[in-house]
Structure formats: structure tokens, C-alpha cells
């Protein structure tokens, strides 16, 4: 891809997010949109999740986070941030429905030296169709529930809450 097509895809993504208008029920629908996400949205999403995780660590220093469940994980942005904040983290599970984002996330993990990210468990699944999530110390949904109808996201939240051993973190635009 060239810089012009990447720039156009980034603009399209931003417009869809601002208008809350996913195409075919999804905001990211092509390989160029996945690359645009990585170059434009990944850094800000990383910073937001890192900030939330830092606050969780500050508020709960006596509750070590050893496992993370990332719902609607995209390319694994929140998991990258978690490895920076939680020194006791031993297990990461990511649930994402887009196979292209999963492959992108796995490829990114292989470029670094973090074996926890390289050995993370990825599950391809639609959050709307899962009745239970595996229990983890920290369950995160970052920038995923806002893309769903409110009644659906409410059900997912109930399921996520029941699988959080210690903490459930929800990050959405404007929160």
C-alpha cells in the first residue's frame, strides 16, 4: 500500500467512528483499514489503556493481576499496554471476531521480544454469541462495546462481570 491509500483509509475510519456508522456492522472492513488502524488509532488506544491500567495498579497494589481477558481485542492493543503495567501478568487471552486483526496482532507480537504476547491465546469469536468467558483477574473491553447496540453490550457486560476475578475495565470514547 502507498501513503496516499493509507491516508485515505485512515480518513474513512475516522469518519465512520465519528458518525458511529459501521460498514456491514464493522468499522474495519479491509486490509488497508487494518493498517490504517495500526498507524493512527493504535497509539492513542495504547495510551488510554495504559493510563487506565496504571490507575488500576495504583488503586489496587495488593491485588496482583496475573491474567488478562481482552474482549473485542482488535490487534491486541490493550494487551500490549497490560504487559507494560502489570509485572505479575502470566496469561493473556484475546477474543476478536476479525481474522485479519487476529493475524495482524499475532504478527506484531512476533516482532517484539515479549514472550507473553507471543504466547497469548487468541480466540476468534463474536462477542454477541458467547454465553460465558473464562475467568481472569482483569477483563478489559476497550473501544468495542460502543460499536454494538446497547442491549447487546449490556448482556456482554454482565457476562464479562461474572468472569472478572478482580477487575472489569471498560474504555469507550469520551470515558
Question: Which descriptors would you attach to this protein?
Answer:
175 residues, alpha/beta, five-stranded parallel beta sheet, 5 strands, 49% helix, 17% strand, globular
Task: Give a structural overview.
By secondary structure, the chain is an alpha/beta fold. Helices cover about 50% and strands about 15% of the residues. A five-stranded parallel β-sheet has the order 3-2-1-4-5. The termini are far apart. The mean pLDDT is about 85.
Oligomer: single chain
Percent of residues in helices comes to: 40-55%
**Physical arrangement of strands within the biggest beta sheet:** 3-2-1-4-5
Characterize the biggest β-sheet.
5 strands, parallel
List the helices and strands and how they pair.
Layout lengths: L2 H17 L11 H10 L1 H18 L7 E5 L5 H9 L5 E6 L2 H13 L3 H4 L2 E4 L11 E7 L7 H14 E8 L4
Parallel strand pairs: 1-2, 1-4, 2-3, 4-5
Helix pairs in contact: 1-2, 3-4
What's the gist of this structure?
This protein has seven helices and five strands, in the order H-H-H-E-H-E-H-H-E-E-H-E. By secondary structure, the protein is an alpha/beta fold.
Amino acid at each position: 500500500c502507498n501513503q496516499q491509500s493509507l491516508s485515505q483509509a485512515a480518513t474513512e475510519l475516522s469518519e465512520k467512528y465519528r458518525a458511529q456508522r459501521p460498514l456491514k456492522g464493522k468499522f474495519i472492513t479491509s486490509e488497508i483499514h487494518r493498517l490504517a488502524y495500526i498507524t493512527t488509532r493504535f497509539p492513542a488506544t495504547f495510551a488510554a489503556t495504559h493510563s487506565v491500567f496504571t490507575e488500576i495498579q495504583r488503586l489496587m497494589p495488593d491485588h496482583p493481576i496475573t491474567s488478562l481477558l481482552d474482549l473485542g481485542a482488535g490487534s491486541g492493543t490493550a494487551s500490549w499496554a497490560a504487559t507494560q503495567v502489570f509485572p505479575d501478568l502470566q496469561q493473556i487471552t484475546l477474543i476478536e471476531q476479525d481474522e485479519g486483526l487476529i493475524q495482524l496482532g499475532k504478527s506484531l507480537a512476533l516482532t517484539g521480544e515479549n514472550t507473553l504476547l507471543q504466547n497469548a491465546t487468541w480466540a476468534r469469536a463474536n462477542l454477541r454469541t458467547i454465553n460465558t468467558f473464562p475467568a481472569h483477574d482483569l477483563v478489559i473491553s476497550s473501544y468495542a462495546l460502543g460499536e454494538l447496540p446497547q442491549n447487546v453490550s449490556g448482556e456482554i457486560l454482565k457476562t464479562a462481570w461474572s468472569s472478572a476475578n478482580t477487575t472489569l475495565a471498560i474504555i469507550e470514547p469520551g470515558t
